[in-house]
Specification:
With about 290 residues, the protein is an alpha/beta fold. The protein is built from eleven helices and eight strands. An eight-stranded mixed beta sheet has the order 3-2-1-4-5-6-7-8, with helices on both faces. The protein starts with a strand and ends with a helix. The model has no long low-confidence stretch (mean pLDDT about 95).
Length: about 290
Amino acid sequence: MKVSVIGAGAWGTALAVVSARGGSNVILWSYDGEYKHFDGVEMPENITVTKDMSDMRDSDAWLIVTPASFFRETVRKAHDFYNGQPIIICTKGAESSTGAFTSEMLHDELPECKNFGVLSGPQFAAEVASGIPTGSTLAGNESAVSVGKKVLNQLYIEESDDVIGAEICGMGKNAVALICGYNSIACRGENDRALLFTRAWNEVVDLGLASGAKTRTFLQLCGIGDLFLSATSATSRNYSGGAAIAQGNPPAGTVEGLFAIAGLISRARALSVPTPVLCEMRDKMGL
């Protein structure tokens, strides 16, 4: 297969490496022609890095891996080169200005795409690039899931048809991991941390169920799996970002949780779902 990976940050580059190892010929699109270099990982020869989106036109599938803040803009630019390929959304989070999920932005900017899925699970990019085992939930229609499993055959893939659930899990774990990092410094004790962690995640689940998500999705890799990884490790940018805020320092790099909390609260208000912990933590962190 010929696969285009759109976005060459850490996660995009890691997925390009995984796809190439699985036998696909990969076009890795980068806005500046650069990509993430991982220590000890050689780029497979069947990866071509490009700045020209026209190189993606004849691919069999697209994996979109840009940060949520650039997702809409990137899809809009790619529109003219879309040729009906299945699309796997690999970005977690939502648009900060509107709260729109990535699937909603995809529909806005590429309405002709009906064949798509959402990949979400517990993955640190460097470990994935190094070949350390991991897995993901792939939520979407049957055709998109089938293609995604072929492209990402080096990963353990858990199938789902609950797109909204997978997206809320991805957005929710970003917010809760940020909260957990903050509370690793600011909380009065371990009991308090556990209390706030559980209540915050319950609010995410309540919002998901009110949005039509399935309960089981929150127990899968995109849910509890990703939450466990992101909310318990200083390697997580959201966790370390929250800890930095508690110490009075600016977070480093792209921290999706900064935007996720506001987006979750906005959606919850629209559906009359109470989110007292998310609101309290947003205010404490000055977001």
